[in-house]
Amino acid sequence: MQMKKRQKSQYLFRNRWIDRQRIVRNMEAFQDLIVIVLCLGLFAYMVMELWQIFSSLMLPLNHQHVTAKILFLLILVELFRLLMVYLQEHSIAVGVAVEVTIVSVLREVVVHGVLEISWVQTASICGLLFILGGLLLVCAKTPHMDMSTNSSYSAFNNSDNEQQENGGKLPHSTQYEEIG
Fold first, then answer.
1. Under a CB-based contact definition with an 8 Å cutoff, are residues 34 and 45 in contact?
2. Ranges of each domain in the chain
């Protein structure tokens, strides 16, 4: 009886070969589905918040409350953008996450009022904003380290190389062949 040699991407479970790559693809698809559902839910919640902001403008205006609502809506927009970047690149954009955190901290300052916060909290907030600002600068100046392993980036570079080899034309798989 001859035993079939197992590939590195397969392992034996209950006398059946299981392909890890297929499992990973399926799990990534399931993760994408979860992120899409989160995006749709977040979008619906943003529309409801926007409606509340417009309806609160009809009442006597509380500037602090309206500003806090607008900043909260901006946080939701940034979270939506973070989810969209995750869907496209399958990685978290640290710069966008830092931006969300900065806006969230500033929103809390607006909600609670600068004059009502103790000096210790104010110093802590300033330190946090300083660190987050530095991290944002580092993110802006540092090229992405995972670009060489990112398949979409590699495919993009390959298509650019093929275009240069073909004299700027599209690769053969997308060109229409001339007849006759």
1. no
2. 17-141
